Amino acid sequence: MRLLLPVLAALLATPAMAKEAPRWSLAIHGGAGVIERDKLSPEQDTAIRAALKQALAAGSAVLDKGGSALDAVEAAIHVLEDDPHFNAGRGAVFTWEGRNELDAAVMDGRTRAAGAVAGVTATRHPVSLARAVMEKSDHVFLAGAGADAFSRAQKLEQADPAWFATPERRRQLETLKAKKLSAIDVDRKYGTVGAVARDANGHVAAATSTGGVTGKRWGRIGDAPVIGAGTYADDRACAVSATGAGEYFIREGVAHEICARIRFKGDSPKAAADAVMAEVQALGGDGGVIVNTPSGEIAWSYNTPGMYRGRVSAGSAPAVAIYRDEP
């Protein structure tokens, strides 16, 4: 009987008895930075959590009906692009010249097809323009006036400059100029939004959207629309969306680096994300990432005081968080 006990224990620990992967899963972020309890009013805290929950609900509705990971991340990002609490779409920061120039990217883990745009000025949902570049052009990355023209040709919803502009973002630009601050000094947080999803077929996708940094000049582009830096998805490893000091994320190739660690080293999503974010910090950069895998395992990592974030999977209640002391 003693000899049989190890055998019985092994049988009980077979994959059939192990925890099954969720049918689908979704994670989102709304930026990282100096986000602490004394920096947000109770009203801001409540509004931001409500927006994160609404974005999770939009993506979940797609996934729960058997929709694709790509459709889910686009739906979630639409909610965040329309909410002025975040630096994407409506509520995007101003350039030095007082314009809102928007960047976005999407990537499909099934085929590694990708689309990105930078410096667009009139598309209500830049993430949808990035997807149109992926699906309806021969290119991956369009910028500026050409991207705006492509958006009109694809009959995507347009918006006037007044739609994107908010008094708070204009105040930030005025403060930056008056006090001769850097973009990091005036914002102290990165309001880029992102989503990573795993659908019922085991495919992953990632999307990211941003207004960049306050007072950016000379057509500056950060990591969000750069495939492999701020956005990446590969069914062989994971989907990643990043937020942070874009110049450092580009130099590190953050999103692809995380996927490579998972694919080639066998790192867990959390271990891979933590390792790469440590390297970003060693370079002098800060921010955060969200990760989702073909098994539906979600992880996030950030080296800032807080990150607007949320997660949900089939059969579980949605959870959102802001501060570091929250799970």
Summarize the structure.
With 327 residues, the protein is an alpha+beta fold.
Question: Could you please describe the fold and organization of this structure?
Answer:
- The chain is an alpha+beta fold and 327 residues long.
- The protein contains eleven helices and 13 strands.
- Strands 1, 2, 3, 4, 5, 6, 7, 12 and 13 form a nine-stranded mixed beta sheet that branches. The protein has a four-stranded antiparallel beta sheet with strand order 8-9-10-11.
- The longest helix has 23 residues.
Total helices: the number is 11
Describe the sheet with the most strands.
9 strands, mixed
Helix content: 25-40%
Q: Give me the count of strands.
A: 13
Kindly estimate the percentage of residues that lie in beta strands according to DSSP: 15-25%
- The radius of gyration over CA amounts to 20 Å
- Arithmetic mean pLDDT: 93
- Shape, please? globular
What is the element string, with H for helices and E for strands?
HEHHEEHEHHHHEEEEEHHHEEEE
Report how far the terminal alpha carbons are from each other.
44 Å
Q: Which class do the helix and strand fractions yield?
A: alpha+beta
User: Which stretches of 5+ consecutive residues score pLDDT under 50?
Assistant: 1-18
